[in-house]
Protein backbone atom coordinates (compact mmCIF):
# COMPACT_ATOMS: atom_id res chain seq x y z
CA UNK A 1 0.00 0.00 0.00
CA UNK A 2 1.87 3.06 -1.12
CA UNK A 3 1.49 6.59 -2.29
CA UNK A 4 2.22 10.13 -1.25
CA UNK A 5 2.88 9.25 2.30
CA UNK A 6 5.87 11.29 3.41
CA UNK A 7 3.86 14.22 4.73
CA UNK A 8 1.49 12.04 6.70
CA UNK A 9 3.96 9.77 8.41
CA UNK A 10 5.58 11.18 11.48
CA UNK A 11 9.32 11.38 10.82
CA UNK A 12 10.92 8.05 11.68
CA UNK A 13 14.57 7.47 12.31
CA UNK A 14 15.90 4.85 9.96
CA UNK A 15 15.62 1.46 11.65
CA UNK A 16 18.91 -0.34 12.01
CA UNK A 17 19.80 -3.99 12.17
CA UNK A 18 19.83 -4.41 15.93
CA UNK A 19 16.22 -3.60 16.88
CA UNK A 20 13.27 -5.85 17.64
CA UNK A 21 12.07 -5.88 14.02
CA UNK A 22 15.43 -7.17 12.76
CA UNK A 23 15.52 -9.71 15.57
CA UNK A 24 12.09 -11.00 14.54
CA UNK A 25 12.94 -11.16 10.88
CA UNK A 26 16.23 -13.02 11.42
CA UNK A 27 14.28 -15.70 13.30
CA UNK A 28 11.75 -16.07 10.47
CA UNK A 29 14.13 -17.55 7.94
CA UNK A 30 14.09 -19.41 5.61
CA UNK A 31 10.46 -18.42 5.04
CA UNK A 32 11.21 -14.68 4.93
CA UNK A 33 13.59 -15.01 1.98
CA UNK A 34 11.24 -17.50 0.31
CA UNK A 35 8.55 -14.79 0.36
CA UNK A 36 10.63 -11.91 -0.97
CA UNK A 37 12.23 -14.09 -3.66
CA UNK A 38 9.09 -16.04 -4.53
CA UNK A 39 8.76 -17.07 -8.20
CA UNK A 40 5.41 -15.26 -8.26
CA UNK A 41 7.31 -12.01 -7.58
CA UNK A 42 9.99 -12.91 -10.16
CA UNK A 43 7.26 -13.15 -12.79
CA UNK A 44 5.70 -9.86 -11.70
CA UNK A 45 9.04 -8.06 -11.82
CA UNK A 46 10.19 -9.44 -15.16
CA UNK A 47 6.85 -8.92 -16.90
CA UNK A 48 6.09 -12.61 -17.50
CA UNK A 49 3.16 -12.91 -15.08
CA UNK A 50 0.19 -14.56 -16.83
CA UNK A 51 -3.12 -12.61 -16.51
CA UNK A 52 -4.81 -15.71 -15.18
CA UNK A 53 -2.48 -15.90 -12.17
CA UNK A 54 -2.61 -12.16 -11.55
CA UNK A 55 -6.42 -12.23 -11.63
CA UNK A 56 -6.81 -14.97 -9.06
CA UNK A 57 -4.18 -13.32 -6.85
CA UNK A 58 -5.81 -9.87 -6.97
CA UNK A 59 -9.29 -11.26 -6.29
CA UNK A 60 -7.98 -12.95 -3.14
CA UNK A 61 -5.81 -9.98 -2.20
CA UNK A 62 -8.77 -7.62 -2.29
CA UNK A 63 -10.31 -9.75 0.44
CA UNK A 64 -6.99 -9.69 2.32
CA UNK A 65 -6.99 -5.88 2.11
CA UNK A 66 -10.43 -5.74 3.74
CA UNK A 67 -9.11 -7.43 6.87
CA UNK A 68 -5.83 -5.54 6.65
CA UNK A 69 -7.75 -2.27 6.75
CA UNK A 70 -9.63 -3.46 9.82
CA UNK A 71 -6.28 -4.35 11.40
CA UNK A 72 -5.02 -0.82 10.70
CA UNK A 73 -8.13 0.49 12.42
CA UNK A 74 -7.33 -1.70 15.42
CA UNK A 75 -3.80 -0.29 15.43
CA UNK A 76 -5.19 3.26 15.56
CA UNK A 77 -7.35 2.23 18.53
CA UNK A 78 -4.60 0.34 20.36
CA UNK A 79 -1.66 2.72 19.81
CA UNK A 80 -0.14 4.20 22.96
CA UNK A 81 0.28 7.77 21.68
CA UNK A 82 -1.27 10.35 19.41
CA UNK A 83 1.71 10.68 17.01
CA UNK A 84 1.45 6.94 16.30
CA UNK A 85 -2.29 7.19 15.63
CA UNK A 86 -1.56 9.96 13.12
CA UNK A 87 0.99 7.86 11.24
CA UNK A 88 -1.35 4.86 11.15
CA UNK A 89 -4.30 6.97 10.02
CA UNK A 90 -2.20 8.30 7.14
CA UNK A 91 -1.68 4.78 5.86
CA UNK A 92 -5.41 4.12 6.06
CA UNK A 93 -5.92 6.99 3.62
CA UNK A 94 -3.65 5.30 1.08
CA UNK A 95 -5.52 1.99 1.31
CA UNK A 96 -8.87 3.67 0.86
CA UNK A 97 -7.80 5.93 -2.03
CA UNK A 98 -5.05 5.03 -4.52
CA UNK A 99 -4.88 1.36 -3.57
CA UNK A 100 -8.63 0.93 -3.84
CA UNK A 101 -8.84 2.67 -7.20
CA UNK A 102 -5.96 0.49 -8.41
CA UNK A 103 -8.00 -2.61 -7.61
CA UNK A 104 -11.06 -1.25 -9.42
CA UNK A 105 -9.07 -0.36 -12.56
CA UNK A 106 -7.20 -3.68 -12.50
CA UNK A 107 -10.47 -5.62 -12.10
CA UNK A 108 -11.95 -3.72 -15.04
CA UNK A 109 -8.87 -4.39 -17.20
CA UNK A 110 -8.86 -8.09 -16.28
CA UNK A 111 -12.64 -8.50 -16.73
CA UNK A 112 -13.24 -9.64 -13.16
CA UNK A 113 -16.99 -10.09 -12.55
CA UNK A 114 -18.74 -8.23 -9.74
CA UNK A 115 -19.28 -11.39 -7.67
CA UNK A 116 -15.52 -12.04 -7.58
CA UNK A 117 -14.87 -8.47 -6.47
CA UNK A 118 -17.39 -8.52 -3.66
CA UNK A 119 -17.78 -12.09 -2.47
CA UNK A 120 -15.35 -14.55 -4.07
CA UNK A 121 -14.79 -18.07 -2.89
CA UNK A 122 -11.79 -17.80 -0.60
CA UNK A 123 -8.63 -19.86 -1.03
CA UNK A 124 -7.49 -21.77 2.07
CA UNK A 125 -4.40 -19.50 2.21
CA UNK A 126 -6.64 -16.42 2.29
CA UNK A 127 -8.76 -17.91 5.08
CA UNK A 128 -5.73 -18.74 7.24
CA UNK A 129 -4.32 -15.22 6.82
CA UNK A 130 -7.73 -13.65 7.46
CA UNK A 131 -8.14 -15.67 10.66
CA UNK A 132 -4.68 -14.61 11.86
CA UNK A 133 -5.52 -10.95 11.24
CA UNK A 134 -8.94 -11.21 12.88
CA UNK A 135 -7.57 -12.98 15.92
CA UNK A 136 -4.81 -10.37 16.28
CA UNK A 137 -7.30 -7.56 15.83
CA UNK A 138 -9.70 -8.94 18.43
CA UNK A 139 -7.26 -10.36 21.00
CA UNK A 140 -3.83 -8.82 20.42
CA UNK A 141 -2.23 -5.80 22.01
CA UNK A 142 -0.60 -2.97 20.07
CA UNK A 143 2.72 -4.87 19.73
CA UNK A 144 0.97 -7.87 18.20
CA UNK A 145 -1.02 -5.78 15.75
CA UNK A 146 2.18 -3.96 14.72
CA UNK A 147 3.91 -7.31 14.27
CA UNK A 148 1.39 -8.53 11.70
CA UNK A 149 1.23 -5.17 9.90
CA UNK A 150 5.03 -5.06 9.71
CA UNK A 151 5.33 -8.52 8.16
CA UNK A 152 2.72 -7.69 5.51
CA UNK A 153 4.26 -4.37 4.53
CA UNK A 154 7.96 -5.13 4.94
CA UNK A 155 7.84 -8.33 2.85
CA UNK A 156 6.08 -6.37 0.09
CA UNK A 157 8.65 -3.55 0.20
CA UNK A 158 11.43 -6.11 -0.09
CA UNK A 159 10.10 -8.06 -3.07
CA UNK A 160 8.89 -4.97 -4.91
CA UNK A 161 12.22 -3.19 -4.51
CA UNK A 162 14.34 -6.21 -5.36
CA UNK A 163 14.81 -5.54 -9.07
CA UNK A 164 14.09 -2.83 -11.59
CA UNK A 165 10.68 -3.54 -13.02
CA UNK A 166 9.14 -2.41 -16.23
CA UNK A 167 6.31 -4.72 -17.12
CA UNK A 168 4.08 -3.37 -19.91
CA UNK A 169 0.75 -3.76 -18.18
CA UNK A 170 -0.30 -1.12 -15.65
CA UNK A 171 -1.84 -3.97 -13.66
CA UNK A 172 1.63 -5.32 -12.95
CA UNK A 173 3.60 -2.06 -12.99
CA UNK A 174 1.33 -0.20 -10.58
CA UNK A 175 1.15 -3.11 -8.16
CA UNK A 176 4.94 -3.01 -7.94
CA UNK A 177 5.03 0.80 -7.73
CA UNK A 178 2.46 0.85 -4.92
CA UNK A 179 4.90 -1.21 -2.85
CA UNK A 180 8.21 0.39 -3.79
CA UNK A 181 7.63 4.16 -3.91
CA UNK A 182 9.29 6.54 -1.40
CA UNK A 183 6.06 7.00 0.57
CA UNK A 184 5.77 3.26 1.04
CA UNK A 185 9.45 3.04 2.01
CA UNK A 186 8.97 5.62 4.75
CA UNK A 187 5.79 3.91 5.95
CA UNK A 188 7.67 0.62 6.36
CA UNK A 189 10.58 2.44 8.06
CA UNK A 190 8.04 3.94 10.45
CA UNK A 191 6.41 0.56 11.16
CA UNK A 192 9.78 -0.99 11.91
CA UNK A 193 10.94 1.81 14.18
CA UNK A 194 7.57 1.73 15.96
CA UNK A 195 7.87 -2.03 16.48
CA UNK A 196 11.45 -1.51 17.70
CA UNK A 197 10.24 1.13 20.17
CA UNK A 198 7.31 -0.91 21.47
CA UNK A 199 9.45 -4.05 21.59
CA UNK A 200 11.77 -2.44 24.12
CA UNK A 201 8.95 -2.33 26.65
CA UNK A 202 7.95 -5.99 26.30
CA UNK A 203 8.85 -8.77 28.68
CA UNK A 204 10.21 -12.13 27.58
CA UNK A 205 6.83 -13.78 27.18
CA UNK A 206 5.40 -10.94 25.14
CA UNK A 207 8.43 -10.92 22.87
CA UNK A 208 8.06 -14.66 22.33
CA UNK A 209 4.39 -14.15 21.44
CA UNK A 210 5.33 -11.53 18.86
CA UNK A 211 7.98 -13.84 17.42
CA UNK A 212 5.46 -16.63 16.96
CA UNK A 213 3.08 -14.23 15.26
CA UNK A 214 5.82 -12.81 13.03
CA UNK A 215 6.71 -16.34 11.92
CA UNK A 216 3.07 -17.27 11.35
CA UNK A 217 2.40 -14.14 9.30
CA UNK A 218 5.54 -14.76 7.22
CA UNK A 219 4.29 -18.29 6.50
CA UNK A 220 0.91 -16.84 5.54
CA UNK A 221 2.61 -14.55 3.02
CA UNK A 222 4.52 -17.50 1.58
CA UNK A 223 1.42 -19.65 1.23
CA UNK A 224 -0.54 -16.75 -0.26
CA UNK A 225 1.92 -16.40 -3.17
CA UNK A 226 2.23 -20.13 -3.63
CA UNK A 227 -1.56 -20.49 -3.84
CA UNK A 228 -1.39 -18.48 -7.06
CA UNK A 229 1.68 -20.06 -8.52
CA UNK A 230 2.24 -23.79 -8.05
C1 LIG B 1 -1.13 -10.93 1.05
C2 LIG B 1 -0.65 -9.53 1.11
N1 LIG B 1 0.32 -9.21 1.96
C3 LIG B 1 0.76 -7.95 2.04
C4 LIG B 1 0.22 -6.97 1.25
C5 LIG B 1 0.74 -5.56 1.33
O1 LIG B 1 -0.01 -4.85 2.18
C6 LIG B 1 -0.81 -7.33 0.37
N2 LIG B 1 -1.39 -6.43 -0.43
N3 LIG B 1 -1.22 -8.61 0.32
Automatic annotation (TrEMBL):
GO molecular function: thiaminase activity
Pathway of action: Cofactor biosynthesis; thiamine diphosphate biosynthesis
GO biological process: thiamine biosynthetic process; thiamine diphosphate biosynthetic process
Swiss-Prot/TrEMBL catalytic activity: thiamine + H2O = 5-(2-hydroxyethyl)-4-methylthiazole + 4-amino-5-hydroxymethyl-2-methylpyrimidine + H(+); 4-amino-5-aminomethyl-2-methylpyrimidine + H2O = 4-amino-5-hydroxymethyl-2-methylpyrimidine + NH4(+)
Catalytic residues of the enzyme: 221
Annotated Thiaminase-2/PQQC domain residues: 27-230
Residues where substrate binds: 61, 99, 153
Matching Pfam families: TENA_THI-4 (PF03070)
GO cellular component, one term: cytosol
EC number in record: 3.5.99.2
InterPro entries (UniProt xref): Haem_Oase-like_multi-hlx, TenA_E, Thiaminase-2/PQQC, Thiamine_Salvage_TenA
Catalytic EC class: hydrolase
Annotated keywords: Hydrolase, Thiamine biosynthesis
Family: Belongs to the TenA family.
Reported function: Catalyzes an amino-pyrimidine hydrolysis reaction at the C5' of the pyrimidine moiety of thiamine compounds, a reaction that is part of a thiamine salvage pathway. Thus, catalyzes the conversion of 4-amino-5-aminomethyl-2-methylpyrimidine to 4-amino-5-hydroxymethyl-2-methylpyrimidine (HMP).
Annotated protein name in UniProt: Aminopyrimidine aminohydrolase
Taxonomic lineage from the root: Bacteria, Bacillati, Actinomycetota, Actinomycetes, Pseudonocardiales
Amino acid sequence: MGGEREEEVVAATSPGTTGFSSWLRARSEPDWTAVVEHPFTDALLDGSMPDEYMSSYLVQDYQFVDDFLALLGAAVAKADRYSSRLALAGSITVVTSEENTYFQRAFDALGIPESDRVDPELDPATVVFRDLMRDTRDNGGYAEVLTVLTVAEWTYLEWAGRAPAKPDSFVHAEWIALHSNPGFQSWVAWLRSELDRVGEGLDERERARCLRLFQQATKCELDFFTAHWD
